[in-house]
């Protein structure tokens, strides 16, 4: 059985900067409400979620500022590239997210946008807390030490 991170899926967009700028404390998978031209555009793999964020508004979860480019073949049935998109989560998960953002300094950051094994568009949302500059330096120093240690062990063999 494959673990949670090894599920077979087609990655569309990844927010690689999120793990650098935030401490990801919890994450969950959410469905995303899309129009037909948006799904076609996502299948080409040119979406961007780096500048986007999620917010709980009016008892619903929304993806704000996510970029899905226009699909060239959808002439008159196109879509707005940066429109707000509704995210689908259970009420229990929504309550958990709302409580997480009510705490000091927590935010909802999209981590990955992908198609699951059934071909449905999903987005992985992380409940995150912002890193300070010293935290970023410490993380970078730790990563460098791990890389150096692996190099030494490989050379000594």
Please outline what is shown here:
The chain has 157 residues and is of the alpha+beta class. The protein has helices at 18-21, 36-43, 91-102, 133-156, and strands at 10-14, 22-32, 53-57, 60-64, 85-88, 106-115, 121-130.
Keywords:
globular, 157 residues
Structure write-up:
Helix content is 31%, strand content 32%. It has 4 helices and 7 strands. It has a 7-stranded antiparallel sheet with strand order 1-6-7-2-5-4-3. Strand 3 and strand 4 (60-64) form a beta hairpin. The two termini are 33 Å apart. The mean pLDDT is 84.
List the helices and strands and how they pair.
Blueprint: E1 10-14, H1 18-21, E2 22-32, H2 36-43, E3 53-57, E4 60-64, E5 85-88, H3 91-102, E6 106-115, E7 121-130, H4 133-156
Antiparallel strand pairs: 1-6, 2-5, 2-7, 3-4, 4-5, 6-7
